[in-house]
Every structure is written in C-alpha cells, then in structure tokens.
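#random but structural
TW: two for the price of one
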Amino acid sequence: MSKTKIIKDLIIKTKKIDWQSIKDLQPLSLKNDYNSGKLRESIINNGFTRAIYVWDSGKDIFCVDGHLRMDILKELVADDIKIPEKLNCTFLDLKSRKHAVKVLLEVFNTKTNPINKGSLDDWFEFEDLSFDDDFDITFDDLHLDFEKEEKKEPEKGALNTITITFDNPEDLQEAETGLVEVLSDYGAKWKIK
C-alpha cells in the first residue's frame, strides 16, 4: 500500500505590515547585483506590485523573498520618494530558520523556465505590442530560450565574422557572459576590442 503525498499550502496570509521592520534572512552579499537598476525603474514606473515573502519566527519577521526590492525601497526613501509605511507581505508557515533558508534557496532562488522567443514574438503580435514602444525592458532583460541550430561546418578557408557594437563598456560587460556561452557552443574564436 503506497502512501499518498500531500502538498501543504505554506501561505498563511497576506497582510500589510511595516516593511522597514523586516529583518534580512540572507547575508547582504549572497547575490550578485545584476538587475537592481531595472528593478528600481520598474518600481518607480509600475509601483510596488509583488508582495515580500516573510517568515514570522515569533520574535522577528524575516524576509524570505524580496531582499532586493526592500533595498531599493530604502534607497528610494533616501532619495525623498514617498513609499507607504505598510506594504503587502505574504506570510509563510515555516517550521524554523533552517526551513526558511531552505525555502529561500530552493523556491525563491531557482532559475525560472526560460521564455520561448518564438512564442513571445507570437504573443506580442497577437497583443499588438512591441518592446520598443510599450515596455521599458529589452530582450536582454528576459531569460529567453533560443533553439540552437545544428552546427554547420564552415567551408574550409572561409572566414565567417560578426561585429557587435555596444554604446558603452557596461553594456558590453553585462552581455559578455551570454556571448561567451553562445560563442562557446559553436566553437567560435572571438576577441573583445
């Protein structure tokens, strides 16, 4: 006789609380800062749209997901931008600090499924949307999944080149990791000038 696995709903409630009283669960240096500028602009342009996930230890309330949002909100307050004193937080039913760290790492810090570019293009066409006109994001801001083509062997002696120009060194640095990965998949030789 097999036991049936029961999935527990760990969400207790969503409630507005003083977000500045929430304690950090993770070390401040845990994550590399790649997207804070984009997130800051999103909060300024779109408002606070995603609850902070928290665990109430009985003594303190700890952030399980939303550390960067809270850091940006603190920066905005320092820049004299008005932020409500209380914001929505989703309380999780976690047994201990160890359980909270486990959920932080296994649930909130896993990579999401990549977006299929073909489906995204079709959806944008259906909705009559364009990145240039309707959004403050670019394709590079999304985790896109490009189907890889079969590797074709270049003709002997043929030199196949591509030139990519960036407006500033920061854009090049941000794109470099992705470029290296793609170029390595194709066995390409490359150099940055």
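TW: number two ↓
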Amino acid sequence: MNNPLPSDLGIDMSDLMASVAATGAVNEAGPPLPDPDSSSLDDQKKEREKREHDQKLQHRGSLVVWVEWVTALWMLATFVLLFFSQCLGLSDTVLVTLITTTMVEVLALVVILLKSYFKEEKEKEAENNA
C-alpha cells in the first residue's frame, strides 16, 4: 500500500514550508527547537542541574524516612525481645549478640547516610583540585 501524499490528506504544504522557514527547525515532539547560542545552553545546563539536584534531595529525604522507620522498628523489636528474654529462654550470649548487631546496624546506616549527603561536596573539591 502506497503512502498518501500530503495534498491527498488535505495538508497545505505552503503553510508547512512557511512554518519551517520561520522557525528554522521543526521538533517532531513539540515546539520549534531553540536557537543553540551559548547563553541559552548555559541556562539549559543550569536548569537541568537544578532539577537533578532537587530530585536528589527528594530521594535523599525518602531514604532518610525509610532508614528512620527501619531503625525504629528494629530497635522496638530488640526491646521486645529483651523484655521477654526470660520468658523465651534466651541466653546471655544471644542477648549480647542481638544488642551488638543492633548497634552496628544503626551506626552503619548513619555512616551510609552521611557519606551519601556529603559525597557531592567531595566530588566538587576533587574536580576543582584536578
């Protein structure tokens, strides 16, 4: 089957050509492409970096909330086990192990979060020094 011509579809080619000539370029996904001068490219880069930064902050905030909930629930479970340790017949070795692993996990989560928060600053310093 042959593709129909624009004139067969009722499209006026002169209007389309005038539109292309007026804008200089046509973007199939939407409005005409911007003129790529250096100031607009810098503005576009700054806008993209701002969006990426805002998105990172949003993800970090979600991560912090998740870590807070996991830590709180884990600590609650630890306290419940400690409270009922005599009823459950848990030995001192099991309790020491439970408390030690809980402490290590909480400290590890804090370290991971802090490294995540300050990673960008270290990367920027490394770029400036290079």
